[in-house]
Amino acid sequence: MSRNAEARAVSATGNLNKIVGEKKEMSHDLFEAARTAMAKAYAPYSKFPVGAALRTEDGRVFTGANIEVASYPEGWCAETTALGHYIMGGGGKITEIAVIAERMAKCSPCGGILPAGDETLSLRQHRRGRDGHHGRHAALRLQGRYPEMKEALDHLVEKLDGLAPTAALVLGSGLGGLVDQVEDARRIPYAELPGFPRSGVSGHAGEVVAGRFAGTPVLMLSGRAHYYEHGNAAAMRPALEVLAGIGISHLILTNAAGSVDSEMGPGSVMMITDHINFSGSNPLIGEPSDRRFVGLTEAYDAGLRKAIETAAKETSTALHQGVYMWFSGPCFETPAEIRMARVMGANAVGMSTVPEVILARFLGLKVAACSVITNLAAGMTGAELSHQETKDMAPVGGARLATILRRVFEEGLPES
C-alpha cells in the first residue's frame, strides 16, 4: 500500500469545534500508528479495513480499528474504538487525527470520530497525494450503510473546492429554474456521484448545483427519485446521507402538488405544516437500529417555517399553509380519493417529499417544505389531469416561491 495514495489525515488546532482550518503536515508517527491499527481490523463483511489514530495535547497517541460482527452493519468503526481508548486513557484535548483505509485513496472519517455531545463538529481535512496537500472542509456525520457514499462524499467535497454550505434545497418538477439564480455555480451531475438518484421524470435535471444563493453558500439538488419509479421509498437516502456528511444542517424541499382547496388555485405556493403518509410505505423500513423510530411531531422546523412566513410577508407574496398528503403514484388520484383526502385534513396531494422529510429527520436535519400548486385535484373541475399540466404551471408558482426563498437566504437561516 502506498502511503501517498492511501492516507487521509485530519489536523486540528485549539478547540475542536472552533477549527479555523490551518493547514498542517501529517505527522509520520501518527500515520504509522493508524496503519498499524488498520492491520488489526476485523472486517469480514465489508472487506474494508480502516485504522484511526488520534494525538492529545500531551503527546499521547490512541488507536483503533473497525470491528464487524454478525449483525453487520452494526459493529465498531475505527474512530469509535480509538475514542474508546482515548476516553479510558483519561482524555485531554485532541490535536491531530489520522484515518486511513486499505482500499480507498480518500477515506472520509465517519461520524464515530465525534466527541460525545458535539454531533455538529466539523474539521479541516487534508489528503496526502502526489499533487501535494489540499485542505478540504467536511462535517463528519456520515451515518449510512451504503459503501458508495464515501466515494460520493469525497467527490462532492472535491468539486466544492472549499465552499462549505450548511443549507440545501431539493427542487421538484418544473422548479429546476431556481438553479439559474445560483452565483458562481458548480454543476455536478448525479452520474458522477455514486448512490445519487437517476430520475426518469421529465423536468428533473439530475444534478447538484453548488454556489451562492442570495449571498449564502448553498447546494441545490435539481431533481429527485420518486417511490413510483423504483418501488423504493428510500431512493433518496444515499444523497441525503451525503448532504448530512458534508455538513448540511438545513434542508428545504419543494414539489409540485395538486390542491384539494378550491381557494388555493394553480400558481399558488403552500408551505407544508404537516403531512399524511398515505402511500403505505416508509423509507426507514429495514433500518436495523433503534434510530428508525423517528419522532415526527415537529417534522417541519418551526424556525424555518417562521422564516419562510416572514419572507413571504416582506415580499408581499401570497403564501398558503397546509397539510400535504403523500400518494404513491404514478397515476393521479381519483375523485373519491380526493374527497377522502379533504375529509382527512389534507390541503394538497402529491407523490414525493414525505420520504425525504422522514429521512432528513432521521439524519438530524432541520426541514422545511413548500408545494407549488399546479392544478386543482381530481374531480374538482371535471377535467382530466396530466403531467404536462404540472410542467406548464410549476414555473408560475415556482417564480413566487423563488422570491420567498431568496429573501429567506438574504436574511439568513435561523439557528433554531
Provide the fold topology.
Blueprint: H1 3-6, E1 7-11, H2 28-38, E2 50-56, E3 61-65, E4 67-68, E5 75-76, H3 78-88, E6 94-101, E7 122-129, E8 132-139, H4 148-160, E9 167-171, E10 183-189, E11 207-213, E12 216-222, H5 227-230, H6 237-245, E13 250-259, E14 269-277, H7 302-314, E15 320-326, H8 335-344, E16 348-350, H9 354-362, E17 366-376, H10 387-411
Summarize the structure.
It contains 10 helices and 17 strands. The protein has 416 residues and is of the alpha/beta class.
Identify the notable features of this structure and list them briefly.
alpha/beta, six-stranded antiparallel beta sheet, elongated, single chain, 416 residues, disordered N terminus
Describe the structure.
This protein has 416 residues and is α/β, with parallel strands linked by helices. The chain has helices at 3-6, 28-38, 78-88, 148-160, 227-230, 237-245, 302-314, 335-344, 354-362, 387-411; strands at 7-11, 50-56, 61-65, 67-68, 75-76, 94-101, 122-129, 132-139, 167-171, 183-189, 207-213, 216-222, 250-259, 269-277, 320-326, 348-350, 366-376. The strands form 3 sheets. A 6-stranded antiparallel beta sheet has the order 3-2-6-1-7-8. Strand 2 (50-56) and strand 3 form a beta hairpin. Helix 4 (148-160) crosses helix 6 and helix 7 crosses helix 10 (387-411). The longest helix has 25 residues, at 387-411. The two termini are 46 Å apart. Mean pLDDT is 81; it is low at 1-24 and 114-144.
